[in-house]
Each structure stands twice: as C-alpha cells, then as structure tokens.
Amino acid sequence: MKKNPFDQIGLGMFLALCLMGLWQAGKYFSLGLANMALTALALEALMLLLAWAAWQGRMPFLLLGVAAGGFVLNSFLNYGETTHFASLILWQGILAAVWAVLGTGWMLWRKEKIGRLPWLPLALMLLIVAAVGWVWKTNVDADRDWDGHAKRAIWAVPAKYDTGEIPEAGRLEELIYETKAYATDSRPVTKRALVYLPYGYDESRSYNILYLMHGTGDDENYWLQTHVVNKIMLDRMIAAGEIEPLIVVTPTFYVEDDGKDSSLDILTFSFREELRNDLMPAVETRYSTFAETADEAGFAASREHRAFAGLSRGAVTTANSVLCGSLDYFSRFGLFSSFRTTEEHIRETIQSPAQLPLSIDYLYATTGNFDFATPYMVPGYRMLCRLEPRLQEGVNTSFDIFPMRYHSIGHWHLSLYNFLQKVF
C-alpha cells in the first residue's frame, strides 16, 4: 500500500518535536536539579502528547496548541540579552506553528480526511494538568497557613504576613541626595531613594539596615511602593516579632540616560562609587544605624549590621558593586534571579589579600524553576561556593529554587520573605 506523504510528514514533525523536547529536558537534567528537570519533563510531556494527538488524528491544527505553549514558555525561560538555554522550546513552537499552518492548508487543498480524535494522549494531558494543579493548590494552601519560619521549598508567604495593612505600620520617606554620573563623565546628579522606617522608629537606638535594589526597567519605588505587599509583609513580620525592626533603603542604579546607548552593565559596577561616596553617607547621617560615624571607619566597624540585596540586574549590581566592591562595608547579601559575576572578578576583589580577612556572614541566592536566570545562576553559585572557603552551604549560604515561579515579583516576594529571616 502506497504511503500517504501527508502522514509521513506529520510523523516526521512529531518525531522532530520529540527529539527536541527530550534534548531540552536532558539539558535541565544536566544541571543536576531534580525539581527543575521534572518540571521541564512535565511541560515537554504536555506538548508532545498534544503533538501525538495531532499526528494520530490527522489534525495538524492541534499543533497550534504546541506552538502557543512553546512561545509562552520561551517568554519565561529565555531572555534575548543573556539567556538562551531553553532555545529548543522556541524552535519547537516555530516548527509546530509552521506545520499547523502548512498541514492544515494541505488538508484543505487535497481534501484530506481528518482522523478520529485520539483520546489517550488527550486523557494523559488532562491527568498531568490535574496532577500539577493539585500539587500547586495543596502546597500553596499549606504554606498560606504555615506558622513557621523560612523554609526552602516555599510556595507562598503565610497569609498572616501577606494581607491587610495594620495600625503598627512603618512609614516610607523620600530621600533626595547628590551624587555623580560615575559611569561616564562624573557630572553632578540629583537622585532619589525611598527609606522604610519601622513602626516606633526611635532615633536613640541603632537599627540594622538593608539596601534593596530593583531590576531592569524599574525604579526605587519597585520594592515597597509599586508592590506594597512587600511593605505590608515587613510591617507584619516586625509586629509579630518574626524579625527585628530594621531600616530598608530602596535606591536605583539608573543615572539619567547613562548606559542607554551602550550597556546597562556599566551601571552595575559604577554604583559602587555612588553607594560608598554619596548614598550611604546621606542615609546613615540622617537615620540611626550602627554606624557611629558616616564615613569609612564608621561603615567598616558596623558592616555586620548592614545588608544589600537585589533582583535581576539589581542582583548583578549587588554582586559587582557590593559583594565584590564593598565587602568592607557589608557582610550580608541577597542575590535574587541573577548571577553574572566572573571567576576572574571574584579572585581580583574579595579574594585579594585585603579582602580575605573579612567575613561573609550570610549570602542567600534564589531563583525559580521557570526563571530564565536559573541556567546561569546554578553554575555561578556553585562556582562562588567552590572558590570561597568563607561560604559553607547550610551554614552561612543557601540557594533556594522556588517551584512554579518565574522572573517576577511573585518569586521575589518569596525571596524577600526568606531573606528577612536569614539576614540578621
């Protein structure tokens, strides 16, 4: 019996999608992280089961679902500027879209008959979706009712810290300070930061201080004003005695139009000078921290009471300008969804003779298993731990990968919740 070329091409497309999917899942397995690898495998299973249904049922238009899945996942798992680890998922989407259109056109032109709806792959898809949904809801509900402390496999912030403002709320103040465009021409620049003061702030006592940086495209409002849920969480955790009252400063690494026509990465290094020369003196002269004097000696003597954390490019800034650039002023760090500091830069900075005697009291790293930052965060964090004898996993450093989270505030809200309990 002569083989139908339409069916042969459909089979070829299905097999190609299978090979690409298995190769992509294998890449995630190569990272050595079971949670991520199983998530990738489940996603690929859904796409390939739908592709199987399209082939068996002679319904190439079903591949539009595979294409949509590939394009949506690509938006989470790849980022044009830095990360293409999951690029095969994009190519799966493109291949599926091409055959969905051409195959459907062929069927209409040649009047090919549609086959019977294949129930087995569709039933298996429903089973996987139901299982994932059950796991998600069960774990989120459990964590919303959680009454304990920070934990690694966290799915949601406990509801008691996450809903509704309270009378014992801290306040946000605007801080205007003078600095320079250190990345370019050192021209004078006026900038703005927000400062969170805990409820009952008392100038007669000293407070730990956390500097908290946003990511690309955002500003100093991002953490506590744009996403007020983070401020509510701060207020509630302090009121409940879960963390000690602290000052939180949210600056920005942006300096007018600097980096706009070249690369924003220059700002992740030049922020060091702004932080040390201008921002910290402005903040810690005005507010009551453990620095007895707002100068080099005062900052160095109080470094164990000072932390810096950031998300995405803010995490790159944390690594480049603070961990590697200001270890003499800070001893606690949070890297959320990014790590792009090189081994050479680490050796030249914090492993120099002047920096080696300084402690790293805590370093907390996070990402999500849908986060495009994960493929370079995992080897980056491992490289840092391999180079740095001052870091001991489970003692003064940890790396959490949050399930079902991607490069978004939902992930960073969890990161901040855990970090606040670990940092001081």
Report on the structure:
The protein is an alpha/beta fold and 424 residues long. The protein is 48% helix and 13% strand. It contains 13 helices and 8 strands. It has helices spanning 5-30, 34-56, 63-77, 87-110, 119-144, 222-226, 229-239, 265-286, 296-301, 313-323, 343-348, 374-387, 409-423; strands at 171-180, 188-197, 208-213, 246-250, 306-311, 332-336, 362-368, 397-402. It has an 8-stranded mixed beta sheet, with helices on both faces. Helix 10 links the parallel strand 5 and strand 6 (332-336). Helix 3 (63-77) runs antiparallel to helix 4. The longest helix has 26 residues, at 5-30. 42% of the residues are buried. The mean pLDDT is 93.
Topology of helices and strands:
Layout: H1 5-30, H2 34-56, H3 63-77, H4 87-110, H5 119-144, E1 171-180, E2 188-197, E3 208-213, H6 222-226, H7 229-239, E4 246-250, H8 265-286, H9 296-301, E5 306-311, H10 313-323, E6 332-336, H11 343-348, E7 362-368, H12 374-387, E8 397-402, H13 409-423
Parallel strand pairs: 3-4, 3-5, 5-6, 6-7, 7-8
Antiparallel strand pairs: 1-2, 2-4
Helix pairs in contact: 1-2, 1-4, 2-3, 2-5, 3-4, 7-13, 8-10
